[in-house]
Amino acid sequence: MNVLVLGSGGREHALCWALAASPLLTKLWCAPGNPGIAQVATCVPIGALQIPQLVAFAQENEIDLVIPGPEAPLVEGITDAMEVAGITCFGPTKAAARLEGSKSFTKEIADAAGIPTALWERFDNSAAACDFIERRGAPVVVKADGLAAGKGVVVAQTEAEAIDAVTAMMDEGVFGESGRAVVIEECLVGPEVSLFALCDGEDALLIGSAQDHKRVGDGDTGPNTGGMGAYSPVPDFPPALEQACVDQIVRPALAEMARRGTPFRGVLFAGLMLTEQGAKLIEFNVRFGDPECQVLMLRLKSDLLAAIQAACDHELKNFDLRWHDQAALAVVMAARGYPEAPERGTVIGGLDAAAAQPGVQIFHAGTAVGADGSIQAAGGRVLTVCGSGATLREAHDAAYAAIGKLVWPEGFCRRDIGKRAL
Ligand code: AMP
Ligand code: GLY
C-alpha cells in the first residue's frame, strides 16, 4: 500500500515510525513531515490544510490510504475531499469531526447516548450564564463552545473567577467566535486519563490509554500546553476498566453518531476523569493525542497499518490487537519560552548519543535542518524523548538518561513525568 500521513509533529513521527515497519507498506509519504519523519518516510512540502493540493498529490502518486494526524484537516473536511476523489482516508468526515469542534455537540451526543459526563448547560447570553453561575456556585467549569487551541477551559474555584471567564469569552471575545457561546459544567474531581480506540463507524477497538501532563511546569503548574509528557500503561486505569469505558463511552457514542447519519470512522480519543462515581467523559477528540500517540506506538505489537486497514474495511470485530508487555514513557523537550513565545533557531546537539541509549526512541516535532546541517528548534514542542522498559521506572530512567545526553541549553522539559505513578 502507498500511504500518506498528514502532519508534522511527534505524533506523526511516531505514526510514520510504526507504519514503516509494516509488511503491507509499499511507500510511505508524509505532508509536510519534519526532519525526523524524513528518516522513515518521504516528506512532501504540502501543508496539512492544503486540501486541494493534497488530493491532487494523492491522485498523482496512487495513494491507497491517507492518515491525518491532527484535527484541523479533519475539521476542514479532508476525509470528505479524499473520498470524493476515491481515496480512502482514515479519519472522520467533517460532520463526524464535530465531536472535537464543538463542546456542546459532544455533550448532546453524550446525553443522547447515556454516556456518563458532567452536568452541563449551554449559554449564548452572558447575563444568563452569570446568573446560572450565581445560582449554582463554585467550583464550576466554563468552556468556550468552539475550538480555542486547548485554552478555552477555565476550572473556576470561585464564582468571581467563573464570571470573569464568561465576560472574557462572551463579551470581550478573547477566543473570537469560538467563545461567543459557552458551556458551563459541574466540576468533576479525580485523575484524568486519555483512552484511544480505532473506530470503523460501528465497532471500536481499544488501542490503548495513557496519562498526559498538560501543564508546562513541574507539579502541574503554569499554563496549559498541548502536552509535556505521557506514559502507558496507567496504573489507575487497569485493562478491565479500559474495556468498560470502550463499552460504556466509546461504543454508545458510535451508535449515536451512526443513528444521526454521521458514522464515526477514525481514532476516537476519550478524555476521561476517574471520579468516585466512576469514569466520566470530559471530552472527545477525533485523533490521537500528542504525546500520547508516541507511547501507544511504542507499546503496540500488532501491525498498525493492518489494524487501520481493518477499520477501513469494517473488519475491526475480527482484529486481535496485541501489545508488547512493557511500559513506555515520553518526555517532551520544548524550546525555552514555550508555550507563549518559543525561541527558534537554537542548535540541538547530542541527538545521536541520546538515541543510542538502550530502550530509547526519539521522535521529532518542531525541528528543522539548518544551513550547516545541524538540527535546530523550529517550534514549541521540539522533540519527544521516549523510553521503554519492563516497568514504568525503567522506561522513565531510559527517557531521562537520553535527555541527559542532549546538548541544548535553550531547551527544557518537565522533570516529573510519570512521578505520580512511580
Ligand atoms: P477540555 O478542553 O474539555 O479537555 O478541558 C481541559 C481540561 O479542563 C481538562 O483536561 C480537565 O483537566 C479540565 N476540565 C474540563 N472539564 C472539567 C470538569 N467538568 N470538571 C473538572 N475539570 C474539567
Ligand atoms: N495531549 C493532548 C492532546 O493531544 O490533545
Descriptive account of the structure:
The chain has 422 residues and is of the alpha+beta class. It has 13 helices and 22 strands. Helices cover 30% and strands 28% of the residues. Strands 10, 11, 14, 15, 16, 17, 18, 21 and 22 form a 9-stranded antiparallel β-sheet that branches. Strands 3-2-1-4-5 form a 5-stranded parallel β-sheet. A 4-stranded antiparallel β-sheet has the order 6-9-7-8, with helices on both faces. Strand 15 and strand 16 (278-285) form a beta hairpin. Helix 6 (103-113) packs across helix 9 (239-259) and helix 7 packs antiparallel against helix 8. The protein is globular. It starts with a strand and ends in a 10-residue tail after the last strand. Adenosine monophosphate binds next to strand 7, strand 8, strand 9 and strand 16.
Topology (SSEs and partners):
Layout: E1 2-7, H1 10-20, E2 27-32, E3 42-43, H2 51-60, E4 65-68, H3 72-75, H4 78-84, E5 88-89, H5 98-101, H6 103-113, E6 120-123, H7 126-136, E7 140-144, E8 153-156, H8 159-171, E9 182-186, E10 192-200, E11 204-212, E12 215-217, E13 221-224, E14 229-232, H9 239-259, E15 265-275, E16 278-285, H10 292-299, H11 304-312, E17 327-335, H12 351-355, E18 360-364, E19 367-369, E20 375-377, E21 381-389, H13 392-405, E22 411-412
Helix pairs in contact: 1-10, 6-9, 7-8
Glycine (GLY) binds at residues 212, 226-227, 285, 289-290, 292.
How would you summarize this macromolecular structure in one to three sentences?
The protein is of the alpha+beta class.
